[in-house]
């Protein structure tokens, strides 16, 4: 009875490029579904803050218009039109850039190593309309709300500056032993932070959003960086797998043995290899599981197995198999559990998990000769060789593989250099996307802090002039207002790192293809860059605030109301 196997585009032999392209596109799609939401929320926060400030600054002009006989609706139209026009212009520029410019740059960068037809840039009406509506809503709604709220007052009240926010006893004041130990400026800072609650929340969430995006972007790059070199340098040390055909003739086996004895080959190890396919719940396609069976104690010279958690070395036992970490994750199995594999003939075999090994690409099952014979009830017989070359350069590996493929007894040669190149292509593609998002996050942080700084100075100009008249030095005046921003930014950084960690781990689970595992551990660099970025922005803006406050005409500011 003949046996047939049905392949999909992904599982068809030689479909590596199709799979790689699919993985690249899937990864970018996953990032594209998560990052813009956070980015848009933070950008919306900036828009709402700006429009609120604009309406508040136009309070006196609104009072003049109302005193001249204009109806409330006419005054409100002024603010609504301003918000509508500015949001429409920004949206159109953003939609056109997002539809034609960014996809073109991404496509050229991501697929430059492959030959594809010209990129087709389609206009997505649904997504564009959602972006447009959100932008208009953020631009118009705050203006309408604040304008209606302000216009409830009489013209005579609108012509006067808004009364300062009423001070109240804060929670810290009730904790007497702490409050008594604070200096005058520290008490003022604490009171002002809680006095302007809206601005406090905007600063915290604005900084937190930017830090979270920056952390997630850098974290993704860190998780992908070195993944290929770790697996195909420190874990998998062989350069190629030589698979031989079944039922070899004596001369075919002799030819293979002769080539294996070549001086170019530093080490070799005979193994039994078999590929199983398994449909796993939650995975898009049938997964390929590579079984490696060995008899030699020198197996660690070719594959070094490390525990996925403790990173301690694992040994193959006669009581179970060691499986790769991603395989254990998607099958939801742990040490001591069992799972089934099915052969091409339809026979089912139960395998017990004795260890879970660190592995980032592919699904592997490792077992020794004794456990193999227990599970499969057949004698162990080598059908493949792991080889390690003295010169592991890409060209030498390819030349050696080509020499083996000329032999009639060789069925296939799998080179690690080819797999490593596939991993590098995916990593570089996603890395470029992360670089764009990282730059966007930093720019967003600059816009948020600059915007809030301007609002803070503009709204409290009389207060700052008063303390300057009272004899405060320029540095003290700057710190009087900027100390609040620094404290709130520190809180924002802490919250942002926490949220960024969650976003990073969420992206790792979403972005990784079924046969890939991205390392959730990130380098210290990922924590330091967002922190230092915000610190540098605060330092630069601090000098700007100081320069602005030095130029304040105290008398003009104090008599501006009159």
Automatic annotation (TrEMBL):
Annotated membrane topology: Multi-pass membrane protein
InterPro entries: ABC3_permease_C (IPR003838), Membrane_comp_ABC_pdt (IPR038766)
Localization: Cell membrane
Matches recorded under Pfam families: FtsX
Keywords: Cell membrane, Membrane, Transmembrane, Transmembrane helix
Sequence ranges assigned to domain ABC3 transporter permease C-terminal in this UniProt record: 34-150, 437-550
A GO cellular component entry from the record: plasma membrane
Regions that span the bilayer: 37-56, 79-103, 123-147, 200-220, 432-452, 485-504, 524-549
UniProt entry tagged with the keyword Transmembrane: yes
PANTHER family hit by this protein: INNER MEMBRANE PROTEIN, MEMBRANE COMPONENT OF PREDICTED ABC SUPERFAMILY METABOLITE UPTAKE TRANSPORTER
Protein's recorded name: Efflux ABC transporter, permease protein
Native source organism of the sequence: Streptococcus constellatus subsp. pharyngis SK1060 = CCUG 46377
């Amino acid at each position: 009875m003949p046996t047939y196997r049905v392949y999909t585009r992904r599982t068809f032999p030689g479909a590596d490029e199709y799979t790689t392209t699919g993985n690249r596109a899937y990864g970018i799609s996953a990032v594209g579904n998560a990052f813009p939401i956070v980015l848009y929320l933070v950008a919306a926060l900036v828009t709402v803050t700006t429009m609120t400030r604009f309406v508040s600054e136009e309070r006196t002009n609104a009072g003049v218009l109302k005193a001249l006989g204009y109806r409330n609706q006419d005054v409100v139209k002024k603010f609504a039109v301003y918000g509508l026009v500015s949001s429409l212009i920004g949206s159109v520029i953003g939609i056109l850039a997002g539809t034609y410019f960014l996809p073109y740059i991404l496509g050229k960068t991501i697929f430059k190593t492959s030959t594809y037809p010209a990129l087709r840039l389609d206009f997505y009406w649904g997504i564009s309309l959602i972006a447009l509506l959100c932008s208009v809503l953020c631009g118009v709604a705050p203006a309408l709300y604040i304008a209606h709220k302000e216009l409830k007052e009489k013209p005579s009240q609108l012509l006067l500056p808004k009364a300062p926010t009423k001070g109240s006893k804060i929670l810290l004041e009730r904790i007497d032993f702490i409050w008594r130990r604070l200096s005058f400026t520290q008490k003022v800072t604490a009171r002002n932070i809680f006095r302007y609650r809206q601005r406090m929340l905007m600063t915290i969430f604005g900084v937190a959003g930017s830090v979270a995006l920056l952390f997630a972007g850098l974290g993704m790059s860190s998780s992908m960086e070195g993944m290929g070199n770790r697996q195909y340098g420190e874990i998998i040390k062989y350069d190629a797998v030589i698979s031989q055909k079944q039922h070899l003739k004596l001369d075919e086996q002799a030819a293979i043995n002769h080539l294996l004895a070549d001086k170019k080959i530093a080490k070799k190890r005979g193994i039994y290899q078999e590929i199983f396919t398994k449909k796993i719940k939650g995975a898009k396609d049938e997964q390929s599981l590579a079984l490696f069976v060995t008899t030699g104690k020198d197996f660690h010279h070719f594959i070094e197995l490390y525990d996925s958690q403790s990173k301690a070395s694992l040994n193959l036992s006669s009581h179970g198999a060691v499986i790769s970490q991603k395989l254990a994750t998607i099958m939801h199995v742990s040490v001591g559990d069992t799972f089934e594999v099915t052969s091409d003939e339809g026979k089912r075999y139960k395998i017990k998990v004795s260890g879970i090994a660190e592995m980032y690409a592919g699904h592997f099952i490792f077992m020794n000769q004794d456990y193999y014979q227990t599970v499969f009830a057949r004698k162990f017989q080598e059908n493949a060789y792991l080889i390690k070359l003295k010169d592991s350069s890409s060209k030498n590996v390819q030349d050696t593989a080509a020499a083996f493929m000329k032999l009639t007894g060789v069925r296939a040669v799998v080179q690690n250099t080819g797999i490593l190149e596939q991993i590098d292509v995916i990593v570089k593609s996603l890395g470029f996307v992360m670089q764009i998002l990282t730059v966007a996050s930093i720019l967003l942080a600059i816009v948020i802090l600059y915007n809030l700084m301007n609002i803070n100075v503009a709204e409290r100009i009389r207060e700052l002039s008063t303390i300057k008249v009272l004899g405060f030095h320029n540095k003290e005046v700057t710190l009087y207002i900027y100390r609040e921003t620094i404290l709130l930014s520190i809180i924002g950084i802490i919250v942002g790192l926490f949220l960024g960690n969650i976003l990073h781990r969420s992206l790792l689970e979403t972005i990784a293809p079924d046969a890939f595992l991205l390392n959730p551990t990130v380098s210290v660099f990922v924590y330091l860059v967002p922190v230092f970025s915000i610190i540098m922005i605060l330092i630069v803006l601090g000098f700007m605030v100081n320069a602005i406050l030095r130029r304040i005409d105290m008398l003009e500011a104090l008599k501006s109301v009159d």
